Amino acid sequence: MSNVTPMMAQYLEIKAAHEGALLFYRMGDFYEMFFDDAVAAAEALDIALTKRGKHDGDDIPMCGVPVHAAEGYLLTLIRKGFRVAVCEQLESPAEAKKRGYKAVVKRDVVRLVTPGTLTEDALLEARRHNFLAAFARVRDTSALAWADISTGAFHVMELPEVRLGPELARLAPSELIVSEGGEAPFDLAEDMGVALTPLARSSFDSTAAEKRLCELFGVTTLEAFGSFGRAEISAMGAVIDYLEITQKGKLPLLQPPVRDAQDRVVQIDAATRRNLELTRSLAGGRDGSLLAVIDRTVTPGGARLLDQRLSSPSRNLGVIHARLAALDFAIDSPRIGQDLRAALRKTPDLDRALSRLSLDRGGPRDLAAVRTALAQAEILSDLLPAADLPDLLAAAARDLVGFEDLAALLDTALVADPPLLTRDGGFIARGFDADLDEAVSLRDEGRSVIAGLQQKYADHTGIASLKIKHNNVLGYFIETTATHAQKMLNPPLSEAYIHRQTTANQVRFTTVELSEMETRILNAGNRALELEKRLYERLRREVLDRAARIHTAARALSEIDLTTALADLAQDENWCRPEVDDSRAFDITGGRHPVVERALRREGDSFVANDCDLSAGQGAAIWLLTGPNMAGKSTFLRQNALIALLAQMGSYVPADRARIGLISQLFSRVGASDDLARGRSTFMVEMVETAAILNQADDRALVILDEIGRGTATYDGLSIAWATLEHLHESNRSRALFATHYHELTALAGKLEGVENATVSVKEWEGEVIFLHEVRRGAADRSYGVQVAQLAGLPKSVVARARVVLDALEQGEREGGSQKALIDDLPLFAAAPPPPPAPAQTSPVVQMLSEIHPDELSPRDALDLIYRLKDAAET
């Protein structure tokens, strides 16, 4: 039978309750892991795997990480797909020993760390939300709820299940909760890089969920926040239940739920987001994305708001116009904008500091962040004029004020630069609390306090030689000579001075005051820390009591930051104010691709701007774009989609002029790759994405399609492209840009009223093609594929052979010959590559040089060598 120690028995019991997570088991200054957890963690963290004790006769694997460095290790484990149960000591070893010599320190899991429940700055991206989402089905209805516990944001949306993918792509949650036993969207979660977490079906019970939500927000009914369906309540309840499980009852400070609607924002599916590289480049990082290029925000909250706006462009004209009006003010008042941005740069992340404080996971530095942010909020409010402010900024200015009492309290209470952790102490300013000041004085200035007492007692007794001393047996004591001691042993002094010890030459006394002072000095350090902890808790409660209004102020700070950042961008990049209305117009003059333009500028090149007019009723609703590869067709397609998104986000746009009728949906199928994991070829991926567009696009959609049908045989591809174009024109009736290499499609411009041809201009010069990157009306006469192949570096023999084949095929087509006959007439290997040149003979000079070792030559030898080389060259 195995000999399990009490400590290991405790470990196994706690581990059994958290099978799905690595157990960080607190042992003094380390978190230790055992058994399989240790093996997995040691490999994931690249740390040493050791052993401690035995279990069932085998060594117990063990590894550990220091508590002070735990956040870095947690981040690595979370990114590698692990979940971590943090098990802390709930009492000190001294307290445990009171229950018995062999008593084990009480421990329990205080928190489950999962991808969607992170709050520490070290574990989060400051400029992105970290959403935890839950998907629920109730009968024939489904809903998605999502929360960011690091900021308090909480939203819910009813949606058909087919919309789950696009919404997950929009929100990019870190973790998705689903009901156990249900049909889980495993493929979808894997595609999105979302951690999927099954939760008991009871967590999704809508009746229990409603009660759970009412208790959380302290209301009797959820109607105060909106009219929620059973599926929405189920999804929200699952989020709250999961937070109760992972946070062990310490719920974050969530804001009341906001009900989102599908028709509130432009619908963009995952493929379109990926193709347009809105917030992530195709390489997977932020660099190279549209977000990276346009982000000039100076606060984390402003950056998160920009990410949210770009991911969810509005379909509400009132909202768009309000944002543009605020932007107009910032552009027309550059000095105010500069002053606002200077103040914003000094503003900490208010939302995340507040969240950590609410979870009791914060510290003095979070209180200081609230103090600084509120002080900056008042400065920002003063910078904004009282009159003539657009509605958005006027509302923000109002939300920044009203915190004078709290700001003054925090300013008085806290030192200028407090420590990160409460246990470090030293964060309460002198003069704020008299008891703390006394304890700190005793702790830091014990000698001077004792010296003061010594002078006091000398004056009281009239014995100038009286001393206060200390030893390990008596502690502090008063010492005087035997001659003077008689005075203290007799009334009235004997009533105050208590005899302790007599030695050969000295007599020692104490007083009640000195004994109490000794106790206070010895306990001053602990007392000072306890007092600071109490004061910290008081300040924390003061902040949390105003949490709702502080969240509103944080939102106002982010709004001002985003407005001034977009104004700064528009001024520097010469962007124009778009005209956004309820028409079907789409008229861009001098449009540019912001990401490509930035890249070209770094290389010293300029971007060629182009016009685009898809205004139904005024021009064609569909442009059929032809021209060679590398001429800029894909860039032209993407830039017009990005301009539309920026406009409906409420931003100025990279163009000379832009008028855009509201867009309901945006679809992009530009570029494709195979999906080997699902057994899909490039062509299959292309067809799946095209099918999604044709099945969903409405007459308010903007569709950009590039090279439909290119992944199959010529006639198959041409027929698919032809039918797709007709469907967009006749059934979807969408505004669209349709790029193709099938020149046969250009004939449709004469048959379909809403289709117009456009082409990217090129110029041939001495057998080479020059790309002008200019889009003009009309159709291309050829694809210039051979010329592009030559530019790509194909061997000259291959290029020459391709020209022969192309000329023959084009001539045969003009003369009506069959393809087989044309191929039969082409002589095989007619343009075979010439034989490789014979190897050149080695020059005598080169031969001599190859045999020389310069370091071994004397000056005389070097001179002789020059004459020999000259003779060899002449012969």
Automatic annotation (TrEMBL):
This is DNA mismatch repair protein MutS. One of its GO terms (cellular component) is cytosol. Residues 701-717 form the DNA mismatch repair proteins mutS family domain. ATP binds at G627, P628, N629, M630, A631, G632, K633, S634. GO terms for molecular function: ATP binding; ATP-dependent DNA damage sensor activity; damaged DNA binding; mismatched DNA binding. The keyword Nucleotide-binding applies. Signal peptide: none annotated. One of its GO terms (biological process) is mismatch repair. The gene is mutS. The keyword DNA repair applies. Residues 514-542 form a coiled coil.
